Amino acid sequence: MVTILTVYLTVVFCLSAIIREVPAQSENDNGICSRMYIRNGPQELSRLENCRVIEGSLQIALANGSTDQWKNFSFPLREITGYLLLYDARGLQSLRHIFPNLTVIRGQEFIHNNYALLVNDMPDMQEIGLPSLTNILNGKVWIYNNQNLCYLETIDWGKITNGTQGNGIKKNKPSEQCPNTCPLKSCPKSDQGLSLCWSNEDCQKVQVKTCPEDCDGQNCEDCCSDQCLGGCTGPGPRDCFVCKHVEYNGLCMSNCPAGTYMYLKTHYQQFFLLFHKH
Ligand SMILES: *[C@@H]1O[C@H](CO)[C@@H](O)[C@H](O)[C@H]1NC(C)=O
Ligand SMILES: *[C@@H]1O[C@H](CO)[C@@H](O)[C@H](O)[C@H]1NC(C)=O
Ligand SMILES: *[C@@H]1O[C@H](CO)[C@@H](O)[C@H](O)[C@H]1NC(C)=O
Ligand SMILES: *[C@@H]1O[C@H](CO)[C@@H](O)[C@H](O)[C@H]1NC(C)=O
Questions:
Q1: Which domain of life is it from (predicted)?
Q2: Ligand 1 atom having least distance to the Cα of 64
């Protein structure tokens, strides 16, 4: 039996249940939160507590606070299925303390044409500071009119988005006025041999290699399962930071296993709908 309203977001979890209605506000259920629009000031960030995944988009916009107030928050967020927008949030210098573990922006919805990461008119931002970000799966990057923003040339954006075509990075702090110095320890290098980093404290993480299929021998070091995104703690599909496709009982898989149901959720957050997969 299938009941689907309008579903935009791909499935990230498999469950074994049929249809479960839940209250409209079910944030923080299993670390999965609904889209969040942070306005006014840093105190609103507390709504992100315990969110590991945002199903939908995250906007931090039209807000003001002191740099210390913004720095007072740190969240386990690893994944945003929609886009990330930063617009006119004053006092915010870096996301480094707030989202140290944000690994994947799926870009299942965009803002302004086809942007999945948009940083616009952020007067105090000095560095973006997303040291764990390895993948923007759909969509492009727009970083515009941020007069103090540096560390943009030290990121290989083409490794995060699929190539750099369509990215717009303009009218930020002129790079000759930027320190753009990477940590002393050796960071990965761009094709031109430049060190890649998010700040003078964090290197850019580039995807590690995929492990061979039969990973029981010695040939499995410094590699991750092909089901992983953003790295892993071991060679298997249970060891991923973020699953490329779906997650079932902590295991990353290409599809939900037979007899289980995909977990879907609408944009409107009226229901969770579970879809019987044959
Ligand atoms: C923004 O917040 C800072 C720190 O709380 C405060 O000093 C400043 O007056 C605020 N600015 C505006 C325009 O509200
Ligand atoms: C940081 O958070 C703590 C606890 O929530 C609060 O007591 C403190 O005033 C906050 N500091 C700033 C600078 O906002
Ligand atoms: C980020 O991930 C690391 C490693 O898993 C963990 O130790 C740390 O507590 C996480 N940070 C936050 C803010 O959750
Ligand atoms: C990446 O972009 C190229 C063309 O620029 C396209 O052919 C390819 O399918 C894209 N890959 C993914 C994973 O989207």
A1: Eukaryota
A2: 1
